[in-house]
Design a protein that fits this description.
alpha+beta; Helicase, Ruva Protein, domain 3; 2 domains; two-stranded antiparallel ribbon; two-stranded antiparallel sheet; 4 strands; 45% helix; globular
Length: 203
């Protein structure tokens, strides 16, 4: 079951903004990215330095917004002025508005807290079974490059029926692992969290 949005899933602090630390907008050229570039220069975020090596309040601002003053930015050759609302606020707004965008719906699922479904409790053994010597929990802790290799090898192990059933899913997962590896994310461990926590805002 999918619950509330989990902020800790939405930032990769080992990455810089340049490399896609705000995972919701990584690899895109949307309005919030343009706002972030201007805001970063204004409040002193080093755009090419990992967030983990900078002030902790910057992560909170990227997640929950900057309410002190609006930023003027250029998006699609149009000059605009607006507040940076934060990736949590943006995604929550799109979710509550009832978005039908497949990409945004996938993001909502990825960045939400996942609760154990009572009907699925009987499948616990299935969830932790070994895959090429690794449990699913182990795979989340592996470097992205190794996780990708496990997934690619899994595809080779499938018979024709399994390939028809799971081939598209494996292709989807491998595509996203390749992207996360490209932008420099180390592992999937940050997505293995269960309790949403909203960091205290530092003015």
């Amino acid at each position: 079951m999918t619950g509330d949005l989990d902020p800790r899933r939405m930032i990769a602090p080992e990455l810089s903004l340049w490399n896609g630390a705000v995972l919701l907008w990584a690899g895109t050229d949307c309005g919030p990215v343009a706002k972030i570039k201007v805001l970063a220069a204004r409040i002193g975020i080093d755009y090419k330095k990992p967030l983990a090596q900078q002030e902790e309040q910057f992560v909170d601002i990227l997640l929950h917004g900057y309410a002190h003053e609006p930023v003027t930015y250029v998006h699609k050759k149009v000059v605009k002025t607006a507040f940076y609302n934060g990736c949590v606020t943006d995604l929550k707004y799109m979710r509550d508005k009832g978005t039908v965008s497949k990409g945004i719906l996938r993001a909502i699922k990825l960045f939400s807290l996942h609760e154990q479904c009572p009907a699925c409790e009987g499948n616990l053994a299935e969830q932790v079974r070994l895959l090429q010597g690794y449990s699913l929990s182990d795979i989340k802790q592996l470097p992205i490059s190794e996780s990708l290799q496990v997934v690619l090898k899994l595809r080779e192990m499938l018979d024709e029926e399994q390939s028809d059933r799971y081939g598209e899913l494996i292709e989807y997962v491998s595509m996203h692992l390749e992207y996360l590896h490209k932008i420099g994310m180390r592992s999937l461990s940050q997505f293995d969290v269960r309790v949403p926590v909203r960091p205290e805002i530092v003015p």
